[in-house]
Amino acid sequence: MHPRRFVRVRPTGRNSDLAKLILGPKDPVIDCRVVDYSPGGACLEVWGNTKLPIRFELLFGGTRKRCRVVWIAGRRLGVAF
Predict the structure, then answer these.
(1) CA 56 to chain centre
(2) What domains sit in the chain, N to C, each tagged with a CATH number?
(3) Residues contacting residue 26 through CB under 8 Å, at least 6 positions apart
(4) How many CB atoms within 10 Å of residue 14?
(5) In the list 10, 30, 40, 43, which could disulfide-bond 21, CB 3.0-4.6 Å?
(6) Contact criterion met (CB below 8 Å) for 42 and 33
(7) CA distances from 37 to 10, 26, 34, 58 (A)
(8) How far is 60 from 18, CA to CA, in rounded Å?
(9) Taking the model in full, what pTM does it have?
(10) pLDDT value, residue 49
(11) Could you report the per-residue pLDDT of 4-63, keeping only the tens digit for each?
(12) For residue range 65-77, what is the model confidence (pLDDT) as tens digits?
């Protein structure tokens, strides 16, 4: 296993772990949960049978980041910023 470039942290305290995935201008926004995050990426959890594209935008904590999916395991997925 490769060492991580960035330390990941879990959202705590006042920061909600809820986020939104923005797939495209005409697509509905998808709710998700941030399991953990770092300056270089995040682990997200989605519900339902949502088919996600490889690239989308994550709206979390007042910031919007362009993401690329790097792994998927069940309801969880890892994204790089």
Answers:
(1) 9
(2) 18-80 (2.40.10)
(3) none
(4) 5
(5) 30
(6) no
(7) 7, 27, 7, 12
(8) 7
(9) 0.80
(10) 82
(11) 666 666 665 555 799 999 999 999 999 999 999 998 999 999 998 888 999 999 999 889
(12) 999 999 999 999 9
Tell me how far apart the alpha carbons of residues 14 and 20 are, in angstroms, rounded to a whole number: 17
Alpha helices in 7-51 (DSSP H): none
Taking the C-alpha atoms of residue 20 and residue 16, their distance in angstroms, rounded to an integer, is: 12
> What pLDDT was estimated at residue 13?
57
Residue 38 to residues 8, 9, 15, 41, 49, Cα–Cα distance (Å): 5, 6, 14, 5, 26
Alpha-carbon gap, residue 39 to 52, rounded angstroms: 22
Backbone angles phi, psi at 50, to 5 degrees: -90, 120
